[in-house]
Amino acid sequence: MSLVFEDHSFDFELLRALGYSVSGGADIGECLSTASRIREGDTQSWYTEWKRTAERVHAFADASLARGERISARESYLRASNYYRCAEFYLHITPDDARSLPTWEQSRSCFRQALALFESPYEEVEIPYEGTTLPGYFYRVDASETPRPTLILHGGYDSTGEELYCEHVYAALARGYHCLAFEGPGQGSVIRQQHVPFRPDWEAVITPVVDYVISRPEVDPSRLVLLGISLGGYLAPRAAAYEHRLAACVAIDGIYSFGEAIEKMMSLPPTGHSSQEQEAVANALAHAQSQQNTLLRWSIAQGMWTFAASSPFEVMQEARHYTMQGCAEQITCPLLVCDAQEDLFFQGQARKLYDAVTCPKTYLAFSSEEGAGAHCHFGALTRLNQELFAWLDQTLG
């Protein structure tokens, strides 16, 4: 299903932006108008037009707030946050692009201005982690200290902690779940400001997060759920293999081997630990193929940045460590593995994860016919959340 662009990456990112309209993070007309001004495959045009829309909606928010119109201001700040996120998305193709950090900061600032106008209580939190802290937002259903089931959620290869509200937090709060949305190594402000890259042993990240969450009186420690999105579909199950205080784990969508997916995306043969000559050939092929492929060009650049890798070859070498081989069978809590019929990034990986685990498990495939076949089911978040929370309610009792 194509919306506007022939470029698969552009069209998917437009769908992602549009998808947040169900939670107030976008207006359909604003997104389509922005897309109509973007030149096909031109990442600079993408930045310019999304930034233009973000700034316009940001001005709407400021004007509404000045007039005391809290709801209108909140709605506009939330949309502006998403549009600034879109504007920043492809800037990492160029290392150290000076526009990247301030554009991301605008996205985060607008989100926090929106949060300050929300009715439900929340806190910005800092979670102790290996001599530093991980940033997060703790969202509460209400102001009481009644222990409730709590959803710990994080994104993947490129997510921000702020956009997690528009994906699942709003739906969780409506159903009586507290939420901790946080950013780990390789994500959000942790990579942008602390320069801490991804790590494959995600249990080292999740264990201190669980320590923090169960210290809160409003959290029921017996009903703790970990949810990972996109690359988080590897990270969350990996953590669940070693962190056994979780009552359930959700992978949207499941990944068994990130290295296998990256090598398939790059259309390169597995390289192994090869000679310098083979490494040079792999880098040259990746560079040549990426010149006409926005998705591949962005994926390589994103990996070099978030893995602290110096070349496409190093990205592939690092990605090979992100596998559930040897640990999938150690998951003991119930696991929900979601799959997308036309996943742009990880086709076939969810089924491999599901087949490998031996814990109580559920496989939930979403089809293109129902409009939910895209990666992480963008464009069908209402449908996804209906199924997700039906499973959680049943699993947690």
UniProtKB/TrEMBL annotation:
Residues 151-344 form the AB hydrolase-1 domain. It comes from the Bacteria. It holds the Pfam family Abhydrolase_6. One of its GO terms (molecular function) is hydrolase activity. Keywords: Hydrolase. Gene3D superfamilies: acylaminoacyl peptidase, alpha/beta hydrolase. InterPro entries: AB_hydrolase_1, AB_hydrolase_fold, FrsA_esterase. Belongs to the AB hydrolase superfamily. FUS2 hydrolase family. PANTHER family: CONIDIAL PIGMENT BIOSYNTHESIS PROTEIN AYG1 (AFU_ORTHOLOGUE AFUA_2G17550), DIENELACTONE HYDROLASE DOMAIN-CONTAINING PROTEIN-RELATED. This is Alpha/beta hydrolase. The lineage of its organism: Bacteria, Bacillati, Chloroflexota, Ktedonobacteria, Ktedonobacterales.
